[in-house]
């Protein structure tokens, strides 16, 4: 009787493998390649494992495979125009899948990822730059909205001038409009003068 197949999968094994390889590199154990990095006169050498570099970088994979095909025993790789600090961060990333860098170095890490053809680091830098850009745009939007609200509140008058307020109060107390000449007798009605009714009464008599 055949039994059903079951899957044995470890969630921690990849992390443990990376951690163990990282410790071996730091101690210099089982390292089979030396990477010599030089930038503007500053030079440093890093020991590492070919298998780890080849698995994470297409650049190193091509170098090691060509080296093996040619039967060359060379175990030193020279890298020019790569800063020492950047390559140290690159090694830490490929051995641990994480690295902490300053914000102004993110672009340089993206450049070294593209130079060494490390897809994981390239995608990580790209996503981080996108988040940083979105954060800056959000801050600018909040600043713009706060400026607009301050300008609107400054443009609204808080109280009416005293003369206008007095005129409004008087208009509310009296139902009729204010006569500029004083009493209604000074105002002609329908174009007739005040003497017109008296003249008509004399003609009748």
Automatic annotation (TrEMBL):
Protein name: GZF1 protein
Main location: nucleus
Record's keyword terms, sorted: DNA-binding, Metal-binding, Nucleus, Repeat, Transcription, Transcription regulation, Zinc, Zinc-finger
GO molecular function: DNA-binding transcription factor activity, RNA polymerase II-specific; RNA polymerase II cis-regulatory region sequence-specific DNA binding; zinc ion binding
Cited PROSITE patterns: BTB (PS50097)
InterPro entries (alphabetical): BTB/POZ_dom, SKP1/BTB/POZ_sf, ZnFinger_BTB_dom_contain
Matches recorded under PANTHER family: AGAP004733-PA, ZINC FINGER AND BTB DOMAIN-CONTAINING PROTEIN 44 ISOFORM X1
Lineage: Eukaryota, Metazoa, Chordata, Craniata, Vertebrata
Subcellular location: Nucleus
Designated gene of the protein: Gzf1
Residue ranges occupied by any BTB domain in the UniProt entry: 31-103
Annotated region described as Disordered, given as residue ranges: 148-205
Origin: domain of life: Eukaryota
GO cellular component term, pick one: nucleus
Entries under Pfam families matching the protein: BTB
